[in-house]
Amino acid sequence: MTTRKSQSSDKNIVDRTRKRSASSHLVKDLRTRFSQGGGQPIAYELELMTSFAENHRNAAIAMPIFTLIIGLIAGSYIGYYLAAFWVALSIMSYGLMATLSARFMKEAHEEDALRKWRKIYLLAQMLVAVSWSIFSLYSCLTCEDSTYSIIQFSTILVFQAITMILSYGFGASLLITSAPPTLALSIRFMMTYDPAQMMMGAILLGSQTFFYLIADRFKLSVISILEHKAEKEGLIADLETAKSMSEEARRRAEEANLAKSRFLATMSHELRTPLNAILGFSEVMMGEVLGPIGNPTYKEYVGDIHNSGKHLLNVINEILDLSRIEAGRQELVEEAVRLVHVVDDANHMVQIKAKSKNINIICQFEENLPQIWADERAVRQIALNLLSNALKFTPPGGTIWLKVGWTSSGGQYFAVRDTGPG
Q1: I need a labelling partner for 160 at 20 to 30 A (CA). Which of 70, 93, 120, 391 fits?
Q2: How far is CA 365 from CA 41, 157, 257, 405, 411, in A?
Q3: How far are the Cα atoms of 135, 266, 269, 296, 311 from residue 279, in angstroms, in the given order?
């Protein structure tokens, strides 16, 4: 059951890593293809095409209204029949663009489909260019001043700006829409040899170049935004992967800690049961409760067995205490205790072993020490560990000093010093 859970978690981590790698590869591919002049990747081309379609769908009402207003103004100069023909053709072309855009937004697109849609949009843009080129070629033969020329000039300028806003995602192909009517009107102005109209023709050519450069910069800005978005998604994927790995590592650590706790509990029970029997029977034999042993050597062996059993039991208890401390489950029972009494109890516990090694323990306790707030069992265990360590490394005939006193800050301390090595 645990194995299945681990495999599922590992699979989730791998899936998130793959998503992160896909985002990273997409960003790298974008930079490589732009540096080599190979256009934009399919994901970004889809974003740009979608933006192009949204712009034309949103302009489905605004552009026909603009065209109708220009047609009404121009009709008073060139005649309403010609103006009506141009208005009808222009509205039809923009209606076609809006219809195509609405259809494009509903469909899912692969790379081949995008190529097809780009060709369809190019044809639709050509129709828009034809309608506006007809407007540029209309002239007012009965006009005595340049009022109509100014109207055409202003209209084409606005048309260039609108085309730039609507079609920036198409790149150089936006020239297919705005360049033909601009060239047609500029050439017609130039052929009049009128300085004012020639100036307007030059301005139209310059504005066409200007709007194209602006559209290109706008497109690059949008691509940069998309690139940063992809990088952000990659970072989010990295964070999700790191979080999943951290959670998985934490879960495995908890499982390992639980397994260790179960092992220690089992081993403690399995070891304590025979140890209690050994300690009990050895104590009975040492006390000769059931009768004298008779052989002093055997009695000494029984004492060694009893002491070794107690030592092993203490080791088991220390291991369990250490595991509880590591797991944060070691509870301290704090109460008012006298440090001198606790340390002195520990000293009495090791006196037998000290005498057997001919080691002298010198106690240096300051008098009238007040009680402290501590866990008596934990303090006694610390003192026993320090004294046992000192007895272990102090050679026979050595000395151990056990001190209890005041600290410079008003607290209390106990210290163990011996004549052993180190």
Answers
A1: 120
A2: 83, 102, 42, 6, 14
A3: 114, 20, 15, 19, 11
Quote the pTM value: 0.49
Please give the Cα distance from 70 to 64 (Å, whole number). 10
Distance (Å, whole) CA 131 – CA 119: 19
Residue 50 or 332, more confident: 50
- Which two structure tokens, joined as six digits, stand for 208? 């066409």
Check residue 404 and report its DSSP letter: E
Q: pLDDT per residue over 241-272, tens digit each? A: 888 899 898 899 888 877 877 777 777 767 77
pLDDT of amino acid 194 = 86
Mean pLDDT of 121-150: 85
User: Would you give the DSSP letter of residue 405?
Assistant: E
Mean pLDDT of 93-101: 89
Going by the DSSP 8-state scheme, the letter that residue 371 receives in this structure is P
Do residue 287 and residue 351 come from a single domain? no
Q: Same structural domain for residues 174 and 221?
A: yes
Same domain, 377 and 237: no
Residues 91 and 75 in one domain: yes
Number of domains in the chain: 3
**Could you tell me the residue range of the domain that residue 298 belongs to?**
261-327
Same-domain check for residues 38 and 78: yes
Residues 271 and 392 in one domain: no
Helix then strand count (H, E) for the chain reads 11, 5
Q: Which two tokens stand for residue 240?
A: 């999700």
CB 357 within 8 A of CB 317: no
Q: What count of residues does the chain have?
A: 422
Whether 342 and 300 share a structural domain: no
Is residue 50 assigned to a domain?
yes
212 with 310, same domain: the answer is no
